[in-house]
Amino acid sequence: MARQVDLKALYGGQIASRDVVQKGMGGLAQELSKRHNERESQRAAARQHQQQVSKPLLDLVGKDPGASQGLQGLRTLNHSLRKTSTPPSVTKESQRIFTGSFGATVVTPYDYPWTWDATSGSPTVNTSADNNAGQMYFQIYTDENNSSSASAATALGIYFYPLTNNGYLQIWTNPAFSYEWWTYCAFDSAHSDGWIGLYVGSYDLSGGFAGALVDQKISLWSDDSWWSGAGDNTGSSSGYPLYANLSVDSDHYYVLWVWCGGSASAAGWGTFSGSGAGSTLSVTVPSITWELS
């Protein structure tokens, strides 16, 4: 039987508490909320101008009895896409320490979970980060009756403290994921996007957050539609390679995160115009590997 590797023994059996790490992520949450609000203000301004342009067309469309029926069909199609995300399954990996440049492959349970969301209006938002299972997801569905938008992010992280005064750290992982997103619209705007990446937070030895050294977001999809939308779209990967590198020192400890996020916005559905959008992404992280040289 293989001997179980206890990576926490590398750090004297102790790692930073979850409360300290979550407090350090507070600045990131504030920055993400600021970006969400800025995007929403820009979209609201653009939508106001777009409505002025489309009003003469809507006056004509309103005279056609089939227009309302067609819009109701789009609304029904948009609603039918709301469903629970199922994280993808992956091949189970073994935790290990390897020689050469010093490094380790870390498997579940991970040390830290984290979720965040920001909303305007009344969209439906669900987020989850399960550090024991190594799975995370977010779901965003815009309000069917009114203008709304939302942004969300989820993350799974591990503690790291360098065993040398200075070093060069490489991080990689191959998460599996599946996503579904959609935009449907008629004389109004809809948006959907999603991303995945790595994030590394640095902390001083007293637990104070010292900054983000890696803030990686790789786009998986992004759509802005006005006339009919992009429809329903799905995608998946059994192992998507993520990689980052950075310099580290023994005056700080670090939290290495795998994270994902996205947003959706739409106007809701009226009689002769409207839009709906959704963004869903489920991720399974089988392991996180670091190598220090």
Word description of this protein:
By secondary structure, the protein is an alpha+beta fold. It has one domain. The protein contains three helices and 17 strands. The strands form three sheets. Strands 3, 6, 9, 10, 11 and 14 form a six-stranded antiparallel beta sheet that branches. Strands 4, 5, 8, 12, 15 and 16 form a six-stranded antiparallel beta sheet that branches. A five-stranded antiparallel beta sheet has the order 1-2-17-7-13, with no helix packed on it. The longest helix is centred in the N-terminal third of the chain and has 36 residues.
Fold topology:
Elements lengths: L17 H7 L1 H36 L3 H16 L15 E3 L3 E5 L5 E9 L3 E7 L4 E7 L6 E13 L5 E8 L2 E11 L3 E15 L4 E7 L2 E8 L5 E7 L4 E8 L2 E15 L1 E2 L4 E11 L3 E5 L1
Antiparallel strand pairs: 1-2, 2-17, 3-6, 4-5, 5-16, 6-14, 7-13, 7-17, 8-12, 8-16, 9-10, 9-11, 9-14, 15-16
SS elements, strand count = 17
Count of helices?
Answer: 3
Radius of gyration: 22 Å
- What overall form do the CA principal axes indicate? elongated
Q: Please indicate the count of domains.
A: 1
Identify low-pLDDT runs.
Answer: none
Mean pLDDT: 86
Largest sheet: 6 strands, antiparallel
Order of helices and strands: HHHEEEEEEEEEEEEEEEEE
The proportion of residues in beta strands is over 45%
Helix content: 10-25%
Instruction: Decide which structural class fits the backbone.
Output: alpha+beta
Report the end-to-end length measured between terminal Cα atoms. 30 Å
